[in-house]
Amino acid sequence: MALREIVHEGDDRLRKICRPVTDFGPKTQQLIDDMINTLQATSNGVGLAANQVGIVKRIFVIDFQDERGLKVYINPEIIKTEGEQVNTEGCLSVPGWWGEVKRPRYVTCRAQDREGNYFEVTETGMYGVCLMHETGHLNGELYKDHVIPGTMYRDN
Description:
It holds the Pfam family Pep_deformylase. Its EC number is 3.5.1.88. Its cofactor is Fe(2+). By secondary structure, this protein is an alpha+beta fold. It has a single domain, classed as Peptide deformylase (Peptide Deformylase, Alpha-Beta Complex), CATH 3.90.45. It has helices spanning about 25-40, 125-140, and strands at about 45-50, 60, 70-80, 85-90, 95-105, 105-110, 120-125, 155. The model has no long low-confidence stretch (mean pLDDT about 95).
């Protein structure tokens, strides 16, 4: 496993719609392992999308370091949302900045695991926020695109 460089806002790859994964072979497995290693090496990240490490493919990983464990999402689709909540979000690709974002309270996501098997999850709270945030990355969005006006701030 290797650490990959996290690209920052301004890099064109963050604004591209990522390509679906069709090959679950060794190159994809290496990318996933590198993404996990890179995420775990960060001090405050809980999710990482492939385009954040410069690869324009529909993959992200989430690790809240809780009972759910680390989860790999390939070709994710948000298939249902409900309600709303407002939370503070930041991003490894926009270091030092935070903002308030309104997102759904409940999120159902359908994706494939690293072997290509389909699964669905329904999440609430910050995990649901993370599903929306990371799926947004794969669609060429940054959380800043959704920040409530006047709520963006910088680390002290």
